[in-house]
Amino acid sequence: MTELSNPTGPGVTPAPVSASLEAVPKPLEDAMRRRGFDDLTLVQRAVLAAESDGRDLRISSQTGSGKTVAIGLGLADHLLERLSGPPHPQPGPSVLILVPTRELAMQVREEFQWLFAGVRGLRTEVVMGGTSVLMERKALARNPQIVVGTPGRTLDHIKGGAFSTAGIEHVALDESDRMLDMGFRDELEAILEKLPAQRRTHLISATFPSGVRRLADRFQKEVLHIEGTRLGAANADIEHTAHLVDRRDAYAALVNLLLLNEGGRCLIFVERRMEASSLATKLSGDGFPVQPFSGELPQAQRTRTLNAFRDGTIRTLVSTDVAARGIDIPNIELVIHMDPPGDADSYVHRSGRTGRAGQTGKSVMLAAPRIQRQMTRLLGAARIEMEWAPAPGASKVNKQLRKRFRHEMHQRLSEENQLSQAQLDYAKGLLDGRDPAAVVAHLLELAQPKPKREPMEVREPKAGAPPSHGPSNRGFTRFSINWGEASGATTNRILGHVCRRGQIKSPMVGAIEIGSEKSTFDVDANAAARFEKLVKRRDPRDPNLRIVRTTAGGRSGETARPKRSGKPAEKRARGKFKKPFNAKKPRKKA
Question: Taking phi first (over 0 means left), then psi (-120 to 50 degrees means alpha), and beta for anything else, what does residue 231 get?
Fold first, then answer.
């Protein structure tokens, strides 16, 4: 559906979506039909049907719903008119598209290249970290109509005068929520302030959290809100399952899942790049063709790894969340969350790598019992129905592999396969003087393919979750912070704030549990005393955030009550955070 949203009023008026492939400009329609399109997705229809009349677009649609092509359709009339008209008085590009990752930048260029293949004279260039600045400057000197870039490198080129922004009439921020999460707020604001005042500014995202809305409200005018798919709708083709496993049995559960997905593409998500590398090495040692993927890899290696995953040279990729956005690999049958996602948006984007373009897929999360309630709340926020089931054990895997082999055997026997007379004569010779059933049983045993490794036993986790307060692991001390989901807290944001403020490394932080109004986390007991001393100081960046040690009973170990401010208790606790999404200053790898 398409929704018209008055930026100054609360009302939302739905409008029907009737656009079809015939409504697409002819050069783009031909390209889409050659690509195999016979219809448009909901978000593509919504963009075409919207009568924007020069208004700024705010497009919300789930991952995998065809947003990149929708952007191209929304820009088509402007680009076709500009190319067919007289030379523009302003040099440089007329369209700038900003994206959070290098992979998404390359994907946008590839999508635009085939979509606008029938439009003569249209050139798209990409600027991004990890590539040659000199080569990019040469490409920009050829005056492309469209520039796609990551924020940091784009701002560098603008400041260096590599291309003029005077002629830009459209700027689109794709995956805008992710760019803010990655700490690109300052770069985005600097870029937008250098663009002409008379321009159209479009935001595209699966979700629009408060930080994105604040940025949008600053730079967008007369907003037209286009909703392609409601939250969770694009995940309708994905089967969501969660397995409760103790951390020590997580690898065994992972191996069994990969054995059950034999021959299919699988994307495994972990939290940190070191875990991606070590897990990939361990899986490779067990015979699985797998590669790690993270933002720390050189760009050339990232490109080679994705190409190998795309062409099937490797069937499994172990990745950080850098692959959760902008990775459009066809036919990924399985997504495994080895480390749970930090928030609902992360889960939606991770799982959205499967079940794309009308295909079905599976998303499986491995979760420790102590975070089951947290994950249930997180998934509820994403409107995802998760089935909680025991992790597959060795006996179940062996049973499924035998069942799969027998199904393939029956299918082969039902087909009219041409056998030579020599083959038939040899078979008769084997049966001569022997029990036919015994011969067949022996042959079946020999024919059944051997798995890459034997399935592993997975112990049933201990019933019930430990108390949510007090140390969750031996050797850790628990602290609480007055920052919860209601104020935009996520696991990654709390981790970044805690490490910065307490001057500790991330491996020294244990379990993090996000609550509605406050959250708790564990700190290595050896560092707890110094950490507690440091965090007692008022933080100039986020002065309303308070961190206190919790006692074994779960109450705050705060020795002095904060001064009353006259505000309601809830408002004092939550405060008015200046930049809650900027509490973490992550490395900008794009």
Answer: beta
| Residue 263 clears pLDDT 60, i.e. is over it | yes
**Which residues make beta-bridge pairs with 12?**
5
**How does strand 509-514 pair with strand 519-524?**
antiparallel
Task: Tell whether pTM > 0.70.
Answer: no
Domains of the chain: 2-227 (3.40.50.300), 235-393 (3.40.50.300), 396-447 (no CATH), 476-582 (3.30.70.330)
- Give a three-class secondary structure readout of 49-78: HCCCCCCEEEEECCCCCCHHHHHHHHHHHH
Would you state the structure tokens that stand for residue 189, as one six-digit string? 């604001």
Angle at 13 between CA 64 and CA 51, to 5 degrees: 70
Confidence at 178, pLDDT banded by 50, 70, 90: confident
Dump the DSSP string for 262-281: TTSEEEEE-SSHHHHHHHHH
Distance CA 5, CA 247 (A): 46
* Separation CA 451–CA 188 (nearest Å): 49
Q: Give how far Cα 427 sits from Cα of 416, 422, 438, 518, Å.
A: 17, 9, 13, 72
* Helices and strands in the chain: count of H runs, count of E runs: 20, 20
Higher pLDDT, 524 or 270: 270
Instruction: Tell which residue, 288, 341, 297, 352, has the closest CA to residue 317.
Output: 288
- Spatial neighbors of 150 by CB under 8 A, at least 6 apart, are 98, 99, 100, 101, 102, 105, 127, 128, 129, 590
- Alpha carbons 472 and 511: distance in angstroms, whole number: 7
Whether the CB-CB separation of 351 and 363 falls below 8 Å is answered with: yes
| Contact call for residues 496 and 545 (beta carbons, < 8 A) | no
- Please give the pLDDT value at position 64: 67
CA gap 106, 125 in Å, rounded: 9
Report the distance separating Cα 290 and Cα 267, nearest Å.
10
What SS3 state is found at 261?
coil
Give the chain's largest Cα–Cα span: 98
How much is the average pLDDT of 169-192? 87
* Of 236 and 269, more confident: 269
Residue 294 near residue 495 (C-beta atoms within 8 A): no
Helix/strand/coil for 360: coil
Q: Which long-range contacts (CB under 8 A, 24 or more apart) does 258-261 make?
A: 258/283, 258/288, 258/316, 258/452, 259/397, 259/401, 259/451, 259/452, 259/453, 259/455, 260/392, 260/397, 260/400, 260/401, 261/333, 261/334
Beta partners for 292?
318
